[in-house]
Amino acid sequence: MALSKDQIAQRIAKEVKSGYYVNLGIGIPTLVANFVRNDIEVEFQSENGVLGMGPFPFEGEEDPDLINAGKQTITALPGASFFDSATSFSMIRGQHVDLTILGAMEVAQNGDIANWKIPGKMVKGMGGAMDLVASAENIIVAMMHTNKAGQSKLLKECSLPLTGVNCVKKVVTNLAVLSIENNSFKLLERAPGVSIEDIKIATEGDLILEGDIPEMQF
What we know:
The chain has 218 residues and is an alpha/beta fold. Helices cover 15% and strands 24% of the residues. It has a single domain (5-46, 84-208), classed as Glutaconate Coenzyme A-transferase, CATH 3.40.1080.10. It has four helices and 13 strands. The strands form two sheets. A ten-stranded mixed sheet has the order 4-3-2-1-5-8-10-11-12-13. It starts with a helix and ends in a 10-residue tail after the last strand.
């Protein structure tokens, strides 16, 4: 069975290690903070100038002055700090972020990512994604495996305007966990109940299959 957005975030949370500074992009990545283990220390950074984000607030406990880069209300953990965009992007460009988790519209088998613009549609701007992909050494993408028309979003080459080139290390979708290796998608795990054949059909890019492919564990 394909994963929900929450389950994608829950699986990605397993990639977060104690001591990491982590930037969460807009969309599914913002959910990751809800699933990080309580026994590890992690600092979540938001490019609008927050370090020390916690989970989303419960309904009725929102503070409209506390938001992330996607304008969603957030919580702040004890010791959290707030600063201007210049300082925030100094952290990003200075490679002080250990893990960047982004959403995407397309990912190519060489690690290219397109996540900021669909030609002909209005956008507010590219945001901080281009700085993040240019500076980060560890990028995980959270996305749906196919679009609403059932077409693959894991491609041989991106068709949309690129955000970054050769930068994605791993992709977690509603169907699978894949790494980018040897100019291909290497299948590491599959969603519970999803067959390898299902994933092959949903993946336009070249797919590496080695050994037994286990189901995801949460």
